[in-house]
């Protein structure tokens, strides 16, 4: 996977091509020419949708470090993803020509972490944008704590006393991916009577957005300029709400989600100009599992692929279904690898899934 680098040469503009020719002429030795990659690194923030194993190192019930999770990973790949194979973030990394970003917490000593220059994964299952979200399952890393880890990465992993930090350019050219918010609304609010009593939905949404933008601002101050953000699908039609609502979507919830999506988009557009960053946001309908089921026409699209416990998590060491590529859902609450790949492919170089630009356009436009 690591040497399946995405070679930019097929996409070169005349100017870049000329530059490459000049470099080749001056380098004198063709064999030393490096493959150009689209971006030097991918940094991943989020929840169980993109956690690649950070929760393995935390005292929490929200873990996926046992079979059948990871059943479709290459032999020897560490477990910890809440799906049968790779996640959306891993596929985006692969398409960008990068290895899957390893979990930040998997490095016991900073020296070995410093050796990784192609990006890290800070995501933590069950957590959210707000600090209280996820506490019910044990310890997890909130978005603010994930940004703390990113800060360590940017400021400490590349100390060069007396020199301008080369990571500044590195970070500016890197891509930041954030997949978070679902747990804030489910675990953190609609199924949390303390919170629903304390805040009305509009106020709670404001808290989330303020907190999200504060984290984005910190990431920007650390030098990042390119963002991929996942919008929220209509969770009012997801399993916990269907169960609570006798099989019907909760339209009140969907309305609140729609307002969250439009406010996040408006705020990102505004700071895009103010802070000189570029972003792409995944269009919520395009990640809606029912919508993807309609488009892909897979046989068992909406059925889980493993036996699940009352929380919707696969029962440890239970046998997964055989036709995994026909399922968009793996356990009862997390998407399968097929779903992750479908969204990643469309967002990377398709049209209409990631707006206002796909990931390739995001990386290639401007400075
Ligand atoms: C889009 O990217 C995928 C993954 O790299 C690649 O397989 C596919 O050929 C690309 N499609 C286009 C139209 O560039
Ligand atoms: C959330 O926790 C972080 C520490 O990780 C803290 O800096 C921040 O102030 C907290 N936010 C709120 C709203 O309490």
Write the layout of secondary structure elements.
Layout: H1 14-27, E1 42-46, H2 88-95, H3 110-114, H4 143-156, H5 167-173, E2 175-179, H6 182-190, H7 193-198, H8 201-221, E3 226-230, H9 239-244, H10 251-275, E4 278-282, H11 284-287, H12 289-296, H13 337-349, E5 354-355, H14 359-364
Parallel strand pairs: 1-2, 2-3, 3-4
Antiparallel strand pairs: 4-5
Helix pairs in contact: 2-13, 4-8, 8-10
The site of one 2-acetamido-2-deoxy-beta-D-glucopyranose has 3 residues, from helix 4.
Structure description:
The chain starts with 13 loop residues before the first helix and ends with a helix. By secondary structure, it is mainly α. A five-stranded mixed beta sheet has the order 1-2-3-4-5. The chain is built from 14 helices and five strands. Helix 2 (88-95) packs across helix 13 (337-349). The protein binds 2-acetamido-2-deoxy-beta-D-glucopyranose (NAG) (2 copies). Residues 131, 144-145 line the site of one 2-acetamido-2-deoxy-beta-D-glucopyranose. The site of one 2-acetamido-2-deoxy-beta-D-glucopyranose has 4 residues, from helix 13.
CATH architecture term: 3-Layer(aba) Sandwich
Our Rg estimate from Cα atoms comes to 21 Å
Shape annotation: globular
- Strand tally is 5
Continuous helix count: 14
Structural class: mainly alpha
- Main-sheet strand order equals 1-2-3-4-5
CATH class category: Alpha Beta
> What compounds sit in this structure?
2-acetamido-2-deoxy-beta-D-glucopyranose
- The total domain count is 1
Main pleated-sheet profile: 5 strands, mixed
Low-confidence stretches: 1-35
Order of helices and strands: HEHHHHEHHHEHHEHHHEH
According to CATH, the fold-level topology is Rossmann fold
User: What is the straight-line distance between the termini?
Assistant: 28 Å
Share in helix:
25-40%
Mean pLDDT: 87
Beta-strand residue percentage: 5-15%
């Amino acid at each position: 996977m690591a040497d399946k680098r995405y070679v930019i040469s097929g996409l070169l503009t005349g100017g870049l091509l000329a530059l490459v020719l000049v470099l080749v002429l001056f380098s004198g030795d063709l064999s030393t020419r490096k493959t150009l990659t689209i971006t030097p690194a991918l940094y991943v923030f989020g929840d169980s949708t993109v956690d690649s194993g950070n929760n393995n190192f935390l005292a929490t019930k929200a873990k996926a470090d046992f079979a059948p999770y990871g059943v479709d990973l290459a032999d020897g790949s560490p477990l910890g993803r809440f799906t049968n194979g790779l996640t959306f973030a891993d596929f985006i990394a692969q398409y960008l020509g990068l290895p899957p970003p390893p979990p930040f917490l998997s490095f016991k000593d900073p020296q070995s972490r410093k050796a990784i220059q192609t990006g890290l994964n800070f995501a933590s299952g069950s957590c959210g944008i707000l600090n209280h979200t996820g506490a019910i399952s044990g310890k997890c890393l909130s978005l603010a704590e994930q940004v703390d880890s990113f800060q360590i990465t940017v400021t400490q992993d590349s100390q060069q006393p007396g020199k301008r930090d080369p990571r500044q350019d590195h970070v500016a050219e890197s891509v930041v991916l954030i997949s978070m918010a679902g747990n804030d609304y489910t675990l953190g609010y609609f199924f949390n009577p303390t919170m629903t009593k304390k805040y009305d939905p509009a106020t709670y949404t404001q808290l989330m957005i303020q907190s999200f933008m504060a984290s984005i601002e910190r990431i920007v101050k650390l030098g990042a300029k390119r963002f991929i953000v996942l919008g929220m699908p209509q969770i009012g039609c997801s399993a916990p709400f269907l169960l609570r609502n006798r099989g019907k979507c909760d339209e009140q919830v969907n309305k609140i989600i729609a307002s969250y999506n439009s406010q996040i988009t408006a705020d990102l557009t505004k700071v895009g100009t103010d802070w000189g960053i570029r972003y792409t946001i995944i269009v919520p309908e395009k990640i809606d599992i029912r919508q993807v089921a309609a488009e892909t026409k897979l046989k068992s699209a909406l059925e889980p692929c493993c036996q699940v416990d009352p929380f919707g998590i696969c029962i440890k060491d239970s046998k997964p279904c055989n036709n995994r590529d026909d399922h968009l859902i793996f356990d009862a609450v997390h998407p399968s690898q097929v779903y992750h790949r479908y969204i990643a492919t469309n967002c990377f170089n398709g049209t209409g899934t990631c707006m206002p630009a796909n990931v390739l356009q995001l990386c290639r436009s401007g400075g």
